[in-house]
């Protein structure tokens, strides 16, 4: 016959009964939408019929039955129940409508993330996230990068003292790692290519749609490079590959739940910092050479380039004064650095590093830092440190921009910001 016996386990999101037939919707596995459970009164034991007609929405159930060859349910998947067992009954009415018909507030979907994960839209986001992580690992492993894990409790920061979280570390003060920067560079004196997927902890006080106090980064570092161009090439291949992969794996599904996936652009142009200032000048911004591109400027530049068909672009050759000590100088004023922006949001930044010991010490001093505090790091530059470079990419920001979302909290299960420490 054209039927197959099987079992479905999941949560009841909807239930209705029409005389002698009852229909349940059960959210199962990682399927985006629920499976319809058809229960016929005269084909099940009385207990199952009672369950089918009285089950509380949200309860966890096991359904035994057959999958019919011809599915009548509009949602496309169906099981004809022979037995239903309630494994765990809901004690309270769930605070989120599990049919998705009545939307909840932004915060409620975070407070009850596990319940939100029963809804197609949230499932899609976090399945996409998991796929992006998987793609990232595979991409860099294939390119000959060693996956590493560096400490998250550290003795010194690399990205500026203002954003360090302090930790009591026995008799000393320690910090939560802002970035693997110092460690990934030290590793360049032992292996030629590394990558790490790990959280950044940053004590940024402001609350914006693109900042979190704990966010996930992809860090890449590669030695024996000729210039930062080598690094930009890998970053470009990675971002293009990630877009292509997600589109091929989930493009259709994501569209069904309302996401407009970023398209892979024909090319990723490189705009120098100076060119960006000129463009912004024409757009009415009065920025001086050396000024930071603030959020408004980034956004305006993003819109301008998007209108020209470039949603993704590099901004290169920033003033050295605007970049961290580890970035190599190009000349007196410029640095060998780059940012990668998507639609006006900085998603990655990197560059070639200063690998010459004495120059590195000069750079530390020029930034007002004490080289002695960094001696564990500078030591590695004494034993044949090759020319190297790399980048740090915000995976949360990449996913957010790829999905066309406007708040980073939508792609992080339990976001940490100034006001959110639980759940
Ligand atoms: P940077 O500080 O630019 O560079 O960080 C790299 C990327 O990480 C993401 N990011 C964040 N995302 C969300 N919330 C935050 N608070 C946050 N802070 C950073 C951004 C950013 O582009 N060591 C260098 C990288 C390198 O040169 O290799 C670094 O940390 O997408």
Write structural notes for this entry.
29% of the residues lie in helices and 26% in strands. With 423 residues, it is α+β, with helices and mostly antiparallel strands. It folds into two domains: 2-88, Nucleic acid-binding proteins (OB fold (Dihydrolipoamide Acetyltransferase, E2P), Beta Barrel), CATH 2.40.50.140; 120-411, Bira Bifunctional Protein, Domain 2 (BirA Bifunctional Protein, domain 2), CATH 3.30.930. Helix 4 (120-142) runs antiparallel to helix 6. The protein is elongated and about 85 Å long. It starts with a strand and ends in a 21-residue tail after the last helix. The mean pLDDT is 96. Aspartyl-adenosine-5'-monophosphate binds next to strand 11, strand 15, strand 16 and helix 11.
Write a short abstract of this structure.
By secondary structure, the chain is α+β, with helices and mostly antiparallel strands. The protein contains eleven helices and 16 strands.
Largest sheet: 8 strands, mixed
- Average pLDDT score: 96
Query: What is the number of strand segments?
Result: 16
- List the ligand species: aspartyl-adenosine-5'-monophosphate
Give the amount of beta strand, in percent. Answer: 25-35%
- Backbone CA Rg: 26 Å
User: Which strands sit side by side, in order, in the main sheet?
Assistant: 6-10-11-16-15-14-13-12
**Spans with pLDDT under 50 lasting ≥5 residues?**
none
At CATH level 3, the topology of the largest domain is BirA Bifunctional Protein, domain 2
Domains, number: 2
In percent, how helical is the residue content?
Answer: 25-40%
CATH classification class of the largest domain = Alpha Beta
- Specify the number of helices: 11
Give me the strand/helix succession: EEEHEEHHHEEEEHEEHEHHEEEHHEH
């Amino acid at each position: 016959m054209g039927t197959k016996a099987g079992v479905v386990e999941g949560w009841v999101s909807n239930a209705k009964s029409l005389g002698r037939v009852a229909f349940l919707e059960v959210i199962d596995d990682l399927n985006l939408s629920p499976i319809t459970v058809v229960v016929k009164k005269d084909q099940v034991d009385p207990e199952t019929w009672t369950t089918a007609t009285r089950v509380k929405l949200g309860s966890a159930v096991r359904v035994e039955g057959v999958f019919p060859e011809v599915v009548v349910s509009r949602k496309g998947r169906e099981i004809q129940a022979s037995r239903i067992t309630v494994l765990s009954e809901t004690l309270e009415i769930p605070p989120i409508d599990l049919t998705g018909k009545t939307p909840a507030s932004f915060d409620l979907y975070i407070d009850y993330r596990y319940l939100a994960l029963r809804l197609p839209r949230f499932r899609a986001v976090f399945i996409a996230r998991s796929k992006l992580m998987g793609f990232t690992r595979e991409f860099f492993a294939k390119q000959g990068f060693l996956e590493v894990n560096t400490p998250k409790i550290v003795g010194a920061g690399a990205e500026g003292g203002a954003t360090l979280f302090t930790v009591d570390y026995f008799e000393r003060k320690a910090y939560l790692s802002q970035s693997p920067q110092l460690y990934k560079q030290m590793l360049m004196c032992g292996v030629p290519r590394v990558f790490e997927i790990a959280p950044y902890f940053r004590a940024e006080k402001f609350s914006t749609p693109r900042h979190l106090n704990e966010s996930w980064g992809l860090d890449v570092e590669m030695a024996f490079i000729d210039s930062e161009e080598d690094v930009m090439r890998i970053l470009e291949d990675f971002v293009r590959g990630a877009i292509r992969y997600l589109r091929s794996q989930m493009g259709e599904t994501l569209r069904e739940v309302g996401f407009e996936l970023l398209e892979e652009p024909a090319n990723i142009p490189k705009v120098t910092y100076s060119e960006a200032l000129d463009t912004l000048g024409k757009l009415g911004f009065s920025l001086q050479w050396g000024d930071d591109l603030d959020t408004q400027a980034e956004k305006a530049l993003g819109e301008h380039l998007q209108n020209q068909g470039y949603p993704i672009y590099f901004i290169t050759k920033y003033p050295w004064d605007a970049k961290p000590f580890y970035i190599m100088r190009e000349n007196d004023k410029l640095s060998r650095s780059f940012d990668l922006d998507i639609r006006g949001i900085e998603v990655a930044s990197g560059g070639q590093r200063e690998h010459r010991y004495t120059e590195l010490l000069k750079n530390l001093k020029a930034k007002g830092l004490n080289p002695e505090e960094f001696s564990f790091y500078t030591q590695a530059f004494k034993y044949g440190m090759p020319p190297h470079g790399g980048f740090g990419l915000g995976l949360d920001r990449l996913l957010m921009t790829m999905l066309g979302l406007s708040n980073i909290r939508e792609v992080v299960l339990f976001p940490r910001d100034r006001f959110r420490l639980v759940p």
